[in-house]
Amino acid sequence: MKSWAAISTWSMSYDGLVKAGDVLKQGANAGDAVENLIKEVESYPLYKSVGYGGLPNENGVVQMDAAFMNGDTLAQGSVAAIENVKHAVSVARKLSLNKTNSFLVGEGATKFAMQNGFEMTNMLTERAKAIWQEKVKEQAQSGLHPYDGHDTVGALTLDQAESMAAATSTSGLFMKKEGRIGDSPLSGSGFYADSNIGAAAATGLGEDIMKGCLSYEIVRKMAGGMSPQQACDAALYPFCHDLKQRYGQVGEISLIALNRKGEWGVATNVEFPFCVANEKQKAQILMANPGKNQKTQIEPISQSWLDDYQKQINAPVE
């Protein structure tokens, strides 16, 4: 049996990963599999940090960032602060075909999507609008820090032809400044893929992830002979320690990696659920936590955790 594999961030990506695994098993290419995995998450209105239903910026506007990378050619496409586009990841993939102008932002990215026939829609759902209105009210009353809800969906795929791809999508920090861009669309920080070596993606506080170019750092370490798990641990924990010493603080950071053999790895400085599947193991959600000696502890999720997660996702807006 030929190797194939897929890994993605957060439990919200599970349904997309299941579908990606099904098509990779049947011989689909890595690019199609990773794009459709991300699109599945972008379409679901109850996920507050990605796509349709994503939480808006401080002005109540949903601005999305997304990226796609072909591990065979190293071609990349990215969009940032794009608006009213149903699937930002698909626009990013289209841009990856360009020799120039492959990273577009704001109005330019939105116009490109319109001109190329991508589905346009109002990405601000009534649910997300109600959450935003409540946050505006809270800020006025107590000046609460608004930056929460920044879970990027990142995914990596390996197909049976030994090609790899990476993709990301996010609506970014809730209540962010207009035009704010995180690590997700930035090559080497939010994602990187090289079919000769492996791929990596990041999720968390983009401003801190960018300080370490962590996705490229993982691929570089894998090129030097580390396993994906070794590379993730070696990239994250010393960096977090160093950043805390030099910068005074470090935000939430979680990393995923996959190599050309289908081996995977994860590292995190917070509780971090992720999804993985390959030809040897069916799709599953696992939980990662920072462990002892700068090594990540990984275990299956509990049913009670999954039940609580489902309640949280479906909870009505008060």
TrEMBL record:
Keyword vocabulary terms for this entry: Autocatalytic cleavage, Hydrolase, Protease
InterPro entries per the UniProt record, alphabetical: Ntn_hydrolases_N, Peptidase_T2
Active site: 152 (nucleophile)
UniProt GO molecular function: hydrolase activity, acting on carbon-nitrogen (but not peptide) bonds, in linear amides; peptidase activity
GO cellular component assignments: cytoplasm
Site (Cleavage): 151-152
CDD domains tied to this protein: Glycosylasparaginase (cd04513)
Residues the record lists as binding substrate: 180-183, 203-206
Gene Ontology BP term (one): proteolysis
Protein name, UniProt field: Glycosylasparaginase, Threonine peptidase, MEROPS family T02
Native source species: Lactobacillus kimbladii
Lineage of origin: Bacteria, Bacillati, Bacillota, Bacilli, Lactobacillales
